[in-house]
Amino acid sequence: MNKKRISWLMTIAAVAMITFGLWFSGTQAATFAKGYLLYKADSVAAEDFAPKLQTTNAEVSLPEAEEAESIMDPVEEQEKGEEAAEEIAQLPKDIDYPSDPQIGDLMGELIIPKLGASLPIIHGTDEDELEQGVGHYAGSVLPGQSDNSVLSGHRDTVFRELGKVGKGDEFIVHTADGTFTYRVRQVRIVDEDDRTVIVPKPRATLTVSTCYPFDFVGYAPERYILVADLVSGS
């Protein structure tokens, strides 16, 4: 009798594990895999282009934001970062991005030199767009224009390493209007319903947002915000 009961319990446990595995593979794992492919498919080779800029996250007092260790002299570090950014900006582009993007359009490319990453920018921030790459908030201006251009992405897909990016680091954006380089001047942690993220700005600004904390299980209650100023454009 005991053997039959044990066998019955093992069968139930096996069925439960298989059911859980199917559910997980169809949700969390699938999401992670999709984000990994998005992050890597068009990524810039880190050993060739990733700059080693001096990280200044400590000034912002964000205990959960990752800090990169300096492995060279700060001056040499800055020079290598600038050289790498220039090399990335000169990479040939064979994609004709739309000058007047519609929701769902591939409208540009976001390069993050600190991470050696290249990510597609999709016009719109609904789930359909965020599943394809970095979303551009349709209510904001296009990158390179005066005012606030807002980009958002999932922390467990395209922006899973965004915590390594901090004050002084750069974003490079390619669109139909040209190539634009922004430098981060502020790191903020805000509530999910904080509308100051999308308010107009007096100068050309890029605001990059993702959910926070990065290791939070489930729906994260806050947002990790990087505010960057335009420093050059072509």
TrEMBL record:
One Pfam family per UniProt: Sortase
Q: Which residues form a coiled coil?
A: none
Gene Ontology molecular functions = hydrolase activity
Q: Which organism is it from?
A: Planococcus rifietoensis
Fetch the CDD domains from UniProt: Sortase_D_1 (cd05828)
Q: Does the keyword Hydrolase apply?
A: yes
Q: Which UniProt keywords apply?
A: Hydrolase
Q: Where is this region: Disordered?
A: 63-83
Q: What is annotated as the active site? A: H154, C211
Acidic residues: bias regions: 64-76
Name recorded for this polypeptide: Sortase
